[in-house]
Every structure is written in C-alpha cells, then in structure tokens.
Amino acid sequence: MTVLKRYVLRIFISLKHITANVVDRNHGHIVATSSTAEHSIKQSLECGRSCNAKAAAVVGEILAMRLKVEGLKDGQGRGIHVNVTKEIEKKGFKSQTKVWAIVNALKNNGVKLIDEDDGNDSSPSHS
Predict the structure, then answer these.
(1) How many CB atoms within 10 Å of residue 109?
(2) Most buried one in 45, 79, 80, 119, CB count within 10 A?
(3) What sections of the sequence does the record tag as coiled-coil (predicted)?
(4) pLDDT at 2
C-alpha cells in the first residue's frame, strides 16, 4: 500500500535547536534533514541561548539544498506535504515565526510544498 502523502515536512523546535526533516512515509525514514545542532550550521549562527527566525530560515535553505541534491525538491512530482497550522499548534504560538521562516525558505528555494491546511499547491510562482 502506498501513501498518497508520501513526503512530509516535520519541524522540531526546542529551546536550543531547530530541526526540519522530510520523511518518506512509504519507507518510514528521513530522506533529508537540517538542524542548528549540526556543527557547520551552529558555527555560522549566533544562536546564543535560543535560536531565532533567522536560524530557522538557514535551516530551511540548507534543507532545500539537500532536497535538490537528493532529487526530491518536488517530492517526485507529488510535492512535499506540510500542515503549517498543525506545526504551529504543536510548537506553540511563539514559534510561528520560526515555522513560517522554514516554510518560506523552502518555497523561495524552489521546493514544491503542498499546504494541507487548504490542500493547495504552495510552491513559488514562476513569473
């Protein structure tokens, strides 16, 4: 049985770190990840005691680059699903700028996202 929403974006926010994963639900594994806990990212940011929206945007940009390397920026034609409202509710209202920073960084770097809130394709428009 194949899952229609095969690739899903999951975001984890703690007091010190921000992590974004794209999960392949058919095979149950992470296909791409990016986190402020990574040495190379941590050194380039000044997070101090907590990470901000700027750090979240960097995590989103790096995740987008890794998806492109894996050939998955469009989720193999089906897109990468994300429910922004659900992610914000899980993380708390104070983390909404970080969630949106990751989502917008992915969109701005050409990743095809499908927002499950409204079911519409939220990939960047090419004018």
Answers:
(1) 17
(2) 80
(3) none
(4) 52
Identify the residue whose tokens are 């402020």. Answer: 36
Report pLDDT for 50: 63
Q: Which residues contact 84 (CB under 8 A, 6 or more apart)?
A: 99, 100, 103, 115, 117
Q: How confident is the model at residue 56 (pLDDT cuts 50, 70, 90)?
A: very high
Helix (H, G, I), strand (E, B) or coil at 23: strand
| Cα distance between residue 60 and residue 33, in whole Å | 9
Mean pLDDT of the region 74-89: 81
CA–CA dist 98, 68 (Å, integer): 22
Minimal CA–CA distance to 103: which of 75, 84, 116, 127?
Answer: 84
Q: Indicate the CATH number for domain 5-113.
A: 3.30.420.100
The mean pLDDT value of the chain amounts to 82
3-state secondary structure at position 45: coil
Domain boundary assignment for the chain? 5-113
Higher pLDDT, 63 or 70: 63
Quote the CA–CA distance of 123 and 6 in Å, as a whole number: 17
Residues 6 or more apart in contact with residue 29 via CB below 8 angstroms: 23
